[in-house]
Design brief:
This protein is mostly helical. Helix content is 55%, strand content 6%. It has 38 helices and eleven strands. A hairpin with a 6-residue loop joins strand 10 and strand 11. Acts as a regulatory subunit of the 26 proteasome which is involved in the ATP-dependent degradation of ubiquitinated proteins.
């Protein structure tokens, strides 16, 4: 018999025993490892290390409960993490450190080969972690990106955390002016106000150039260069969208009826269709010899009363983002005697300035004097215009102008409601106590009969927008809301909860909201509508939650009361905005023929929302057929027309999706605009089909070109080949897996659909942003050589 000569001492056998012993205790491996050797942990293989990590997690939580020392465990954790990081198992290292609450250790072990995979896993995992763990995980990812000079990724995490100090630090840490310009493009797309000071950029000329990018001054120019490249500059008319000649007799007859409501619908269709192009065939055609007063005047006066306001405001939509040209063309409406036309011009000024910041503050200069006028329509339009132009800016001058209106005893309810919305937009997500106080007092001052009005429900929304996505910060205000009149109290609770947890994916809040929707209440209760929208608002954060929310909403359709069924189509529209999923499309198509006209209207508008800016042919056919089906119902036909305008928005170049940067960042102003429109749609007949149809213009806050425009170092458009395909989730995969599938190669500028991802198809240039969306600066690759 041959004896093996094993020089190792008894510790070797203890370690060996820790692998093979099938003892009853669940932590045998850990027990024997602690008793055994101090040698290399990896020599026993991956499976052993993985098993050990699991046992350490259990032992750690046990010791935490017993308050016993954990030093020996942490020594092992250090060894295991080092092993995992060297062997492409970053997710396992991160999981172990999360279990033992010591993520800071990661900083010692990341290097240039593994930091990207580590950060990708951290940011993906953060969506499924409860607070405050989600924030601490992102803070670590931010620090890692900063350590390795990946400033664009760090900036996106800083924006996700809404931490302006981090944003400032990124600017000061980076010395490259070109990279700073790329940061500015990302800030502009996110829609936040960020003032550069001397500490961030010392040179005055450079600072001015960067501030111009943040102010979005280049947006109109970039959008029009995309339109010229795709050859869609030719203006289109509403008739080009209706395609009445494709319908049989009855539908085509309705299309030619010249009624005020049909003209109003055509005004909106024309505004959405030609948004941002600067020319159309109804409002901007120059007067010629054959039509004395010019086409724009003719079209304007084909609308009645408040319809004229929407028609004049539509000029702002057509000239969207082009402030200089827009203001000069709208100016002619300021000098007439018709108050409705003046109101439309004021709103048009707000629309033109939407998402564009200007040092001269033209919107405040033009609109400021009109917010105290006696005429309610003029007053409302000036207030709405300020809300649109200064959304997200937290401008104190606007607060000083609008806050006194909330305490004005003579002001009508519609003025008060839209003032609250405008203040909510200007201070979106700021948790500003002063504004919150003003809206709370305005709510308390309303009489019981006023609180029963549909517009009164916009007051709690104005309050909710202040806390958009801010989670626990809403609690003090939510407590105050419990003292409100019972007519509005539950409605206010649901609205505050929905807004505060919007885009967080918080499962407990979704459960809470579903609980409220499950109750069968008497008629007259209005809080279940906001609860249904709240489910969509909270669950829209990530794909898994989104799919589950769609399934839950299907159940609500089957078992919910009528007021819930009316809100479900709108919630589906929000979940899949500018993203026409086939299953949701089919559900909405079914609901568009519902016996309850309010359900049908909501479903039709939502068909427009899910197809917004996509030119989706299937939705276009559905809506064309619906226009024939509802040719005798002016209300539903109006909704069908609005939906048709949305689907062909910007001739297919725009999106309403509030998410950007590969669905990582949520623009607060964009979401606020969409939510405001959806809340108005909860009472379609009183608001959208009444005289407040112009609230549809709140959607302009979310309108953005869905493009990739590559520019050179002088910020001039540069055409390069790119591969565009379906994005692939590569989290946790080792090596360098392909990030897109089923791609096609195009030359920039290109359009990106929801779920698309682009990558450069040439090595001649290096992109300054890892995510190719919007404006991307390219610099020449010094190592590139023209070879075969």
């Amino acid at each position: 018999m041959v004896m093996l000569n094993l020089p190792i001492g008894h510790t070797f056998y203890i370690n060996l025993f820790s692998i093979v012993d099938p003892g009853n205790s669940s932590q045998e491996s850990l027990k024997y490892r602690l008793l055994g050797s101090e040698g290399d942990i990896g020599s026993w293989g991956h499976e052993y290390v993985r098993n050990l990590a699991g046992e350490i997690a259990q032992e750690y939580s046990k010791r935490q409960g017993e308050e016993t020392p954990i030093d020996d465990l942490m020594v092992l954790v250090q060894q295991i993490v080092a092993f995992h990081m060297k062997h492409n198992a970053e997710p396992e290292a991160v999981d172990l450190l999360m279990e033992v609450e010591y993520l800071d250790m990661l900083m010692e072990h990341v290097d240039s080969t593994n930091f990207k995979r580590t950060c990708l896993y951290l940011t993906s995992a953060s969506r499924y972690l409860p607070g405050p763990d989600d924030v601490s995980v992102l803070e670590i990812a931010y620090m890692i990106h900063l350590k390795f000079g990946e400033y664009v990724n760090a900036l996106q995490i800083a924006l996700f955390l809404d931490n302006m100090q981090h944003v400032k630090k990124i600017f000061t840490s980076c010395d490259d002016l070109l990279r700073k310009k790329q940061f500015c493009y990302i800030l502009a797309r996110h829609g936040i106000t960020f003032e550069l000071d001397e500490e961030i950029v010392s040179d005055d000329g450079e600072r001015e150039a960067l501030q111009e990018i943040i102010n979005n001054a280049k947006l109109s120019e970039g959008y029009l260069s995309l339109a010229r490249d795709i050859e869609v500059m030719e203006p289109k008319t509403p008739e080009d969208i209706y395609k009445a000649h494709l319908l049989d007799g009855r539908g085509s007859a309705s299309a030619s009826v010249d009624s005020a409501r049909q003209n109003l619908a055509a005004t909106f269709v024309n505004a959405f269709l030609n948004a941002g192009f600067g020319q159309d065939k109804l409002m901007t055609l120059q007067s010629d010899s054959s039509s004395g007063g010019g086409s724009s005047g003719n079209w304007l006066f084909k609308n009645k009363e408040h319809g004229k306001a929407s028609a004049a405001a539509s000029l702002g939509m057509i000239l969207l983002w082009d402030v200089d040209s827009g203001l000069s063309q709208i100016d002619k409406y300021f000098h007439g005697t018709d108050s409705h036309v003046l109101a439309g011009a004021l709103l048009g000024v707000g629309i033109v300035n939407c998402n564009i910041k200007n040092e001269c503050d033209p919107a405040l200069a033009l609109l400021g004097d009109y917010v105290d006028k006696e005429d309610a329509s003029v007053r409302i339009s000036a207030i709405m215009g300020l809300g649109l132009a200064y959304a997200g800016t937290q401008n104190e001058q606007i607060c000083a102008k609008l806050s006194p209106i909330l305490s004005d005893g003579k002001a009508s309810l519609d003025v008060i409601a839209l003032t609250a919305i405008s203040l909510g937009l200007v201070y979106v997500g700021s948790c500003n106590e002063e504004v919150a106080q003003s809206i709370i007092y305005a709510l308390m001052d309303r009489s019981e009969s006023e609180l029963g009005e549909p517009l009164a429900r916009l007051l709690p929304l104005g309050l909710g927008l202040l806390y958009l996505g801010k989670q626990d910060a809403v609690e003090a205000t939510a407590e105050v809301s419990k003292t409100f009149n019972e007519k509005i109290q539950k409605h206010c609770d649901m609205t505050l909860l929905s807004c505060a947890y919007a885009g967080t994916g918080n499962v407990l809040k979704v459960q809470n909201l579903l609980g409220h929707c499950a109750q069968h209440l008497e008629k007259g209760e209005t809080h279940q509508g906001p609860a249904v929208l709240g489910i969509a608002l909270v669950a829209m954060a990530e794909e898994l939650g989104l799919e589950m929310a769609i399934r839950s909403l299907e159940h609500l359709l089957q078992y919910g009361e009528q007021n819930i069924r009316r809100a479900v189509p709108l919630a589906l529209g929000l979940l899949c905005i500018s993203n026409p999923k086939v299953n949701v499309m089919d559900t909405l198509s079914r609901l568009s023929h519902d016996t309850d006209s309010e359900v049908a209207m909501a479903a039709v508008i939502s068909l427009g929302l899910i197809g917004a800016g996509t030119n989706n042919a299937r939705i276009a056919v559905m809506l064309r057929n619906l226009s024939s089906y509802y040719y005798k119902d002016p209300g539903l036909l109006f909704c069908v027309r609005i939906a048709q305008g949305l689907v062909h928005m910007g001739k297919g170049l725009l999106t309403l999706n509030p998410y950007h940067s590969e669905r990582f960042l949520l623009s607060p102003t964009a979401l606020a605009g969409i939510v405001t429109t959806l809340y108005a749609c909860l009472d379609m007949k009183a608001i959208i089909l009444g005289k407040y149809h112009y609230v549809l213009y709140f959607l302009v806050l979310a309108m953005q070109p869905r493009m990739l425009l590559t520019v050179d170092e002088n910020l001039r458009p540069l055409s390069v080949p790119v591969r565009v395909g379906q994005a692939v989730d590569v989290v946790g995969q080792a090596g360098r897996p392909k990030t897109i599938t089923g791609f096609q190669t195009h030359s920039t500028p290109v359009l990106l659909a929801v779920g698309d991802r682009a990558e450069l198809a040439t090595e001649k240039y290096i992109p300054l942003s890892p995510i190719l969306e919007g404006f991307v600066i390219l610099k020449e690759n010094p190592e590139y050589t023209e070879d075969n």
